[in-house]
Amino acid sequence: MNVKKGYHLLKKLYEYGEVEYHDSISFLKGQYLFDQKHERYIITNNWITYGQQFQSEQDHILSLFCFNENYQKYLVEVALLTALKMRETEYLEDIETFVSSLLKLSSYAVSVLSEIKEDSGFSTARLESRLKQNEEQYQNLNRFIFDGPPHYQRVMFYLKHVQAYKQEKVIEDIDLGKKIDDQWKKGRKISNGLSLVPLKERPLYTLVPSIPERKIDQPQFQHVFTYPWKLFVFLCCIVRENFEAQGLQAIRYQVAGDGVDVLLTASNHQEFRYGSFDEFATEFCKVSQYLLFPNELCNLHTIFHNLVERKLLTVVDEEYRLPTTIEDVIYHTRLFIPLIAESKQLRERLEQWVDELREKR
Questions:
Q1: What secondary structure letter does DSSP report for 239?
Q2: At CA 81, angle to CA 130 and CA 6, rounded to 5?
């Protein structure tokens, strides 16, 4: 296995959800953590669910190497050897308790124990000899994952997470398409990495920062079309203005320190605070069945700040608004088709969501 190449590919999958095919990580395909289409690997809903166990990117990625069946068995033997030595020092009373903690891997642990069993007990020397035969084979993996020989606590950490993985039916991917409405269809996998370097090559299924294939005549909007969440925030602001154009003060985005609060007006005309914009967007994603990766959506307030710096939004009476000059560009230039006409369904869903929230009050 080319460990460094495999790590590079898994890191790209972690961030972008798609990567070119390479056999160094093909051992994961059988786990249905990613799917293969058009010579590319695309993460599945199983990948996203599995990743939610981890606090860090590094732990998530390194744990994936432990799905390799042969390496997994090797790690079980490493952990078993340590457990047997702890038992000899009476630090561990019952080897059966240790074996049962391995859950799905307990049958393999039992088979190893039966092979090294002697009249006087279990032979750690025989197990050490057995491990030594595989040391060279897994030397590169061990150095990469454990910075040297595998140590018990980290081995058990990875094995327990790998065992906790529950394979579910893979949700079929939707072709990304070129229109906003296609890209934001229900069920879409969307990266919540706000500062990812945009891909030069357009992805096939996952919505991530990428250079638009279509040339945008207005340079300041090229940036918005490059970053999905900047486009989302901007469209939310358009929805706010559309409500007001209909005589409704339905939703407002208010400055709240460094954050952004969402204020809604109920059907009885009473305004109330819904929550932060992060909370508002997160709930909309749940309703839309979006599969967000690699972690929870957060810090969308920074996008409001960025759009103000780029003069695409302005702050009026502590509220984020579209400048009239920007509205003129949106509705009276060729930008209207890609931004407004081709986002009709998404904006209607946002409006419907806002109306539902107002009625719930």
A1: H
A2: 70
What region, left, alpha or beta, does residue 275 occupy, with left being phi > 0 and alpha being psi -120 to 50 degrees? left
The pairing of beta strand 271-276 with beta strand 259-265? antiparallel
Q: Which residue has the tokens 């590169």?
A: 140
Q: What is the CA radius of gyration of the chain?
A: 26
Distance CA 323, CA 329 (A): 10
* DSSP result, 269-325: S-EEEEEEHHHHHHHHHHHTT-EEESS----THHHHHHHHHTTSSEEETTEEE--HH
Among residues 229, 222, 219, 220, which one has the least CA distance to residue 195? 229
Q: Which of 277, 249, 272, 250 is nearest to 261 (CA)?
A: 277
pTM: 0.92
Residue 47: CB atoms within 10 A of its CB come to 27
Q: What's 199's DSSP letter? A: B
- Between CA 193 and CA 172 the distance in angstroms is 23
Q: pLDDT, tens digit, for every residue of 187-202? A: 999 999 999 999 999 8
pLDDT digits 0-9 by tens, 42-53:
999 999 999 999
